[in-house]
Amino acid sequence: MTSLVLAAGYAAAALHFVFFAFVVLGGFTAWRRPRMFWVHLGVAAYALGIVIVDWPCFLTEIENWSRAATGRPEMEFGFIDHYLTGTLYPREHLMTSRYVIAAVVACSWAGAWWLWRGRRAAGGAGLPSVGARG
After folding, report:
1. At what angle do helices 36-48 and 94-121 cross, to 10 degrees?
2. Domain range spanning residue 92?
3. Is residue 133 part of a domain?
4. What is the reported pTM?
5. What is the mean pLDDT of the chain?
6. Residue 134 domain-assigned (yes or no)
7. Alpha-carbon gap, residue 54 to 96, rounded angstroms
């Protein structure tokens, strides 16, 4: 049983990295697949809520549950502080890193909008509505 709980914690940590990568770079998927814009918008809004409003992150909760159940210390402040701050960027550049991430997301969305306008002007399908099929 302990190995399953440990595996759940490692899976949550791995999914955290995937989630973080999608938050930062997922908007670029909308350049090729316009419907992904809506998925990325939702994910980015949730991530923004975690950072700004201090919403709970279910992946952090799973990882902390696994850590506690296997006798390891829980993450004190969450995934970003535990794994990225001080590793990916220096602690004193936390706000700078947030601005860079926001700029990357804004550029990806601006590019998606620009491509959508080009497709629409050419008579193709633009950015589909949320409920569009096909």
Report:
1. 160
2. 2-121
3. no
4. 0.82
5. 89
6. no
7. 19
